[in-house]
Structures are given as structure tokens and as C-alpha cells.
């Protein structure tokens, strides 16, 4: 049974009051692909915008098996229990090609953190959006900020194209890696290492502590080969364990150090300004695509063009030119 929709004011009041249930429903509203929901979603976002922007936005990525969920839960618990923060975690999951829904479901993998009222965990399906990032991740960040969450953690599906998109909507970019840096270093794209603000070797526990420290030193040496970033920040490396919590506070100390430096140099404001412009351009692209598909008969013409391209009867360039004409 479908829940009745709330009014715009009910969504707005619930978000601003920090009501996690209404925040979740507001994010569901903005993620809706039903065009009838768009005006209501826009009204909610515009009302919440003046109350947003006062958080530290951190992007977190890592190779499969690096232990992102365990690490994020340990970091979230540290921020809540030690620092008194309210933490929102937006996890961009790969999508099911059948239902379009999230596959990994981080909410079920962070049960202890999810039970805390000071935490909000939202797995959102990428639904095939470019880069594996949710189409409305920016809007979800703004709603979480308006709801009073001072720390926003955005987890990506893995190491790949999604990192560029997440880097463009966060203040700090953290890459989690494992020991055995000699092998992993070969598989990490140069572009990702150039975006990193902090590289943390996770699972530094038990017999793995020494290997993790060796891996940290290897990555530290590798990072020194890259030119300095435009904002003057020198990327750092640490070891940590999401399982035991060792080194997790040190990770956040680096985030705070970076935040302070960016504030003092004015780079924080400049980055947020760039993010706003990027958001505008992304919305333009989405609007143009939606307008294109809404034109009479376009869905049918698009299907015909896809069949023709698949059969080799027409090349993709000619097919696009025909559709746009």
C-alpha cells in the first residue's frame, strides 16, 4: 500500500525539525522519477536551501573488500559518541537492473549506527546515472544539512568514475586501501590518487599492522610524485582499523585540519561556489534530457533508433542527429 504524500510544508517542517522519518520521505520525494512529484520536490528543496551548507562533506571510496561499511560505522560512532556530532551517511549503491533498487543496502550493514537517533543512513540506488552516483545526491546532502546533520559522509560504490562526481560535491576526499600496496598501486588510476586528500590503509589490526604500515609508506612515497594541488593541501596517509577503531580518530583529525586550512585560505568558499555551479549545470543536463524524452512520439522513435543501431542499419552518430533534428 502506497503512503499518502505529505504537503510541502509538512516535509519542510519535518526536515527542519530533524525528523529522520520525514527526512527519508523527503529524499524519496526528490529521487522520484514521477514528473508529477517534481514541483513539490522543488518547493521542498528551495525552502530548505537557506538552512543548508553548514556541514563538513566527506567523500569516502575504496576498492571492493576494503571494509568501507565497517570503517564508516566506526567513524560514525566516534563522531557521535566522542565529538557529539550528528552524522548523515549517503551510500550510493549499485542498482538492480530489474527493480532499480539498491543492492548492497548499507543500512543493514551498519545496524548499531543505524539504531542511533543521531545518525541517518540512506542507501540510494545509482539507477545507471553517469559515474554510479545518485542523480539527486546533491539535493540529499542539502536536506540532511537542513535537518541539522553537521557531518555528511558520501560513500561511493567503488573505485571508478564515481569518484570524480563525488569529489565535485564534497569538501574532503578519503580513499581507503588495504595492505599489499605494491600490487594495489598498479590497479589504482592516477586520476584517483590526484584527487585524494587522505589515503587510509584499513584493516591495520592483528598480524596485518606491520604490512599496513609498509603499505602506508609506499603510498606516501607515491603521492609525493604528484604535483601539489591547487588549494595547497598536501595529501596525507594513515593506517586505521574499522574493526577495532584504532586510528579512526586520527582520520577525522586530518579532515578537521584540512577544513581549517581551507577556511583560512578561502578555498573552502571557492570550492562550495564551484559545487553550486556544477549543480546548476547538472540540472540543466537533466532538464534537457527530460524535455527531449517528453516530446510527442520521442520514446517510440528512440526505441526504433536503438533497434537500428543494434542491427547495424545506422551508426550512433547518424541516429542521434536524426533524433535531435
Describe this entry's structure for a reader:
- By secondary structure, this protein is of the alpha/beta class.
- It is built from 15 helices and seven strands.
- The longest helix is centred in the last third of the chain and has 28 residues, at 267-294.
- Residues 95-107 and 128-133 have low confidence and may be disordered.
What structural keywords apply?
325 residues; alpha/beta; 15 helices; 51% helix; globular
Number of strands: 7
- The fraction of residues assigned to DSSP E strands is 5-15%
Q: What characteristic shape results from the CA principal axes? A: globular
What's the pLDDT, averaged over the residues?
86
Low-confidence stretches: 95-107, 128-133
What structural category characterises the helix and strand content? Answer: alpha/beta
> How many alpha or pi helices?
15
If strands are numbered along the chain, what order do they take across the biggest sheet? 3-2-4-1-5-6-7
